[in-house]
Each structure stands twice: as C-alpha cells, then as structure tokens.
Amino acid sequence: MRPSTSARAAVLATISAAALAVTATPAVAAEPNDSCTYADGTVCLHVSKWFNDATMEYTVPLSTECVTTPIGFLGWVNLTDDTLKVFSGAGCTGVSYLVPTGDLHNVQSPLHSFKVV
C-alpha cells in the first residue's frame, strides 16, 4: 500500500530537517550527485546515514536484475511501488535488508547493490 501524500510529505520534511541539522544538503542513476528529487516513482540512495553528501536516484521502472551502485550507500528513501532488497556486497551478495514502499531508513555499514523483489 502506498503511503498517503501527507505521509510522504512528512518523510521529506524529516529528511530536509536532518540535512539542515548537519549543514549539508542531501541524481540520476549511474552518476553520484548531491540531490534527489524525492518524486513519486524514485528511490534515492544516500552515501551518508544522515541523508546528505552524495546521492543517487533511480526511477521506475526498476529492473528485477541486480543493480550494483557506483557508491556505497548508508541511507535510502523508497518512493516507488516496489519492494526492494539491498545488499552489502556488489552483485546482490552479502547481508541484505528488505526495503518496503515508502521506507526511509539508514544503516551503519555501506550497502552496494539492490534489486526489486
């Protein structure tokens, strides 16, 4: 089930506040950047668990094939209708976490790949 517009707005407000708190601002896929659109149908991966510094944004349709990212990421915002699985290793190997629709989360160790499940 997709979160309501007000729930998505609350998530984005939380991200903005976190980014401002560390005095940095939180791309299209394949090239790390320093911002994401946070538009419906996107997943934003953050190199920092504080949701700042370099980011990568992927847009739907996402492939069910494994995507190895050019950056290690510690945080994500999933605004797609897809459940993702993120992995600690390249090629969708290692420790993994499920990322449901509407999920805003961070972890302590860098992740390097993901796929739609």
General description of the model:
The protein is mainly β. It is built from 1 helix and 6 strands, in the order H-E-E-E-E-E-E. It has one helix at 5-21; strands at 42-46, 55-59, 67-78, 84-89, 93-99, 104-116. It has a 6-stranded antiparallel sheet with strand order 2-1-3-6-4-5, with no helix packed on it. It is globular.
Instruction: Report the structural category.
Output: mainly beta
DSSP summary, beta strand count:
6
Rg: 13 Å
Number of helices: 1
Report the uncertain regions. Answer: 16-28
- How much helicity do the residues have? 10-25%
Distance between the termini: 15 Å
Anisotropy-based shape: globular
Going across the major beta sheet, what is the strand order?
2-1-3-6-4-5
Order of helices and strands: HEEEEEE
**Average residue pLDDT:** 81
Largest sheet: 6 strands, antiparallel
Beta-strand proportion: 35-45%
Summarize the structure.
The chain is mainly β. It has one helix spanning 5-21, and strands spanning 42-46, 55-59, 67-78, 84-89, 93-99, 104-116.
List key phrases describing it.
mainly beta, 117 residues
List the helices and strands and how they pair.
Blueprint: H1 5-21, E1 42-46, E2 55-59, E3 67-78, E4 84-89, E5 93-99, E6 104-116
Antiparallel strand pairs: 1-2, 1-3, 3-6, 4-5, 4-6
